[in-house]
Specification:
The structure holds 2 protein chains of 2 kinds.
Chain A lengths: L2 H27 L19 E7 L5 E7 L5 E7 L1 E7 L5 E9 L7 E9 L4 E8 L13 E3 L6 E6 L3 E7 L4 E7 L3 E6 L5 E6 L4 E6 L6 E5 L16 E3 L2 E5 L4 E6 L6 E7 L9 E2 L5 E4 L4 E7 L13 E6 L5 E6 L3 E6 L6 E6 L3 E7 L5 E8 L3 E6 L3
Antiparallel strand pairs in A: 1-2, 1-29, 2-3, 4-5, 5-6, 6-7, 8-9, 9-10, 10-11, 12-13, 13-14, 14-15, 16-17, 17-18, 18-19, 20-22, 21-22, 22-23, 23-24, 25-26, 26-27, 27-28
Chain B lengths: L2 H15 L12 H5 L17 H11 L19 E3 L16 E2 L4 E6 L6 E10 L9 E3 L27 E11 L2
The chains are: A mainly beta, B alpha+beta.
Chain lengths: 385, 180
């Protein structure tokens, strides 16, 4: 008998016993096994959120809801194409103005204002809009809610500019306001008024009637020079003040009392600073009202056309004085947002599809504290707490 | 005269030369508002600022001399182009790819041709009604670009907005005038 044959004979009992053991195994453990049941989670996890618009131009986009503390993704709120995002002041509702072209790339385009319940991440009522809404990159002032929460305001472009006024409670459009030569929407701190930036350097303000069907208009004096030093459309609202920055790096303070906008301050943020620094990005600034500080994306070596450049640094600026309090290295941010409380956090997005979190020290310096992955054109963020 | 005035003046002239009525969803551009002609409802007949054939013919003539690599984002005409290059999607520098539609409206840049040192007005027309052509280089340059309150100089928006089919495909760069 060869060694090979002997080895086979020794293994034979094991080979015969194995199928028997396997056939008995389920029976032996069945009474201990509890099958899992698939369900859908009913609510998002608790805790403060940071909302990131993940825009798509080739199909469905989303609003991503992240946890501020951990940057864990809690839910995606589904949108159509080229959407704009709006988060209610209490953070409990979200809105998106989206395009739904019937054949995605061609055919009739239905434009819709969709509402969402943030806690359950469920899609709520929607309002079909006149098919004129701006199909633009995500900018905060292209979709706004009035301070009294009665109306949602939609920026249109055909390319003639107008604003659609929506009453979400009634599920109806109340009017379309022509705003020729003007762009972007800034809700007044109280009531149902808003302002828009005009190409001649003025702001036009509109006070809506109680039913939203009419509006009274007032126009400011010129508050910036659109030829020499245009302003970015992303502004920071602190109380009854609106703050904007210019392409060259001036901080302009405007008083928004609900009537005509008034200019009250202008400070050159880069005066005496070496390196050709200038603001850049999309949602390039955010304010923390509790500390009275603005955080601004800045890049060096600025030239004509670099105004959308990602950050090299984020500057912290005292709003009352325009003084630069701190400069932090924070590379690659094209948009940022700041939490409003006593201990501010800064969240920013990059063109490479990352969400970054920064803590803010007593000296207003930023320290990176986390990152998460994003999808689509993630150029708009929102926080309310 | 500022460059914006030059561009709007040029747009006015182009409009005058090639006025055409369009569907009620299409409006006139902000240069009309700037001139004090507010848009109220349907009281003003909407018109288009650009004649698409003009741009093609003019662009071809001016582009006769070799002046750089038109397949690179560094090409001089692309100084305010934000989009995918149509010449890498089956089209050319001045022609939309087959099957797509030329955008009825466009934004304008002012770019210097290094070959002759002159500044040209460049109409950046989007091509519409096809899937986004991500096969092509994506360029994002912003010389002279302005926010939407100067709509004719704004490139963060889908310029297929006035077309029946609004899917963004790619962008061409057509020489339409000289900025003197």
């Amino acid at each position: 008998m060869t060694e090979t044959t002997q080895a086979r004979r020794r293994l034979r009992p094991l080979v015969l016993a194995l199928p028997l053991a396997l056939s008995l195994a389920p029976a032996l453990h069945a009474e201990d096994f509890v099958p899992e049941v698939v369900t859908a989670k009913e609510t998002i996890d608790p805790g403060a959120n940071v909302f990131v618009s993940q825009q798509q131009w080739i199909g469905a986009g989303s609003i991503a809801v992240f946890d501020q503390a951990t940057l864990a993704l809690k839910a995606l709120l589904p949108t159509g194409s080229m959407h704009q995002m709006l988060i209610s002041a209490d953070g409990k509702s979200a809105f998106a103005q989206s395009s739904f072209p019937k054949r995605i790339t061609y055919g009739p385009n239905e434009m819709v204002l969709t509402s969402y319940d943030v806690t359950t991440a469920k899609v709520g009522p929607e309002v079909v809009l006149p098919p004129k809404a701006a199909m633009a990159l995500g900018y905060t002032p292209l979709l706004r809610q009035t301070a009294d929460k009665k109306f949602v305001l939609v920026q249109n472009a055909t390319p003639a500019s107008s604003i659609t006024v929506v009453d979400p409670a009634a599920g109806a459009v109340t009017q379309e306001i022509p705003t020729p030569g003007c762009w972007a929407i800034f809700a007044a701190p109280a009531g149902a008024s808003f302002s828009t930036i005009c190409g001649d350097g003025t702001f036009a303000s509109y006070a809506l009637s109680a039913d939203g069907a009419t509006a009274e208009k007032t126009v400011s004096k010129p508050v910036f020079d659109p030829e020499k030093d245009p302003i970015f459309i992303e502004g920071a609202q602190v109380g009854d003040m609106l703050y904007f920055v210019t392409y060259s790096g001036k901080l302009i303070g405007l008083k928004d009392s609900g009537a005509a906008i008034e200019k009250v301050s202008e400070t050159d943020l880069v005066a005496g600073v070496e390196g050709g620094w200038a603001p850049g990005g999309y949602e390039l600034l955010g304010a923390n009202p509790a500390k009275g500080v603005l955080f601004l994306s800045m890049h060096p070596g600025a030239t004509d056309g670099s105004h959308k450049a990602a950050s090299k640094e984020v500057w912290a600026i005292e709003l009352a004085s325009g003084k630069v309090l701190a400069r932090s290295e924070a590379e690659g941010l094209t948009s940022l947002v700041v939490t409003p409380g006593e201990t501010p956090l800064v969240f920013g997005t990059s063109e490479e599809g990352k969400l970054f979190k920064f803590t803010v020290g007593d000296d207003f310096k930023l320290t990176k504290a986390g990152e998460a992955g994003l999808a689509g054109f993630a150029m708009q963020l929102s926080v309310v707490e | 005269m500022s460059i914006f005035d030059k561009i709007t003046d040029w747009m006015d002239r182009m409009t005058e030369a090639s006025v055409r009525g369009v569907a009620s969803t299409t409006g006139r551009r902000s240069f009309l508002a700037r001139a004090g002609l507010g848009l109220v409802g349907a009281a003003v007949m909407p018109v288009l600022p650009f004649d698409r054939t003009f741009g093609g013919a003019g662009g071809m003539a001016l582009a006769a001399a070799p002046d750089g690599d038109e397949f690179s984002c560094d090409y001089w005409r692309y100084c305010a182009l934000d989009g995918n290059l149509c010449n890498s999607c089956g089209g050319t520098l001045t022609q939309c790819p087959p099957g797509s539609e030329v955008s009825k409206v466009s934004w304008v840049g002012t770019c210097r041709n290094p070959a002759d040192g002159k500044d040209y007005l460049v109409s950046y027309n989007d091509c519409c009604g096809r899937a986004e052509c991500d096969n092509a280089p994506f360029c994002n340059a912003n010389q002279g670009e302005r926010p939407g309150y100067r709509m004719g100089l704004h490139n963060d928006i889908n310029w297929c907005m006035a077309n029946a089919s609004q899917g963004y495909h790619c962008t061409v760069a057509v020489l339409v005038g000289i900025a003197e």
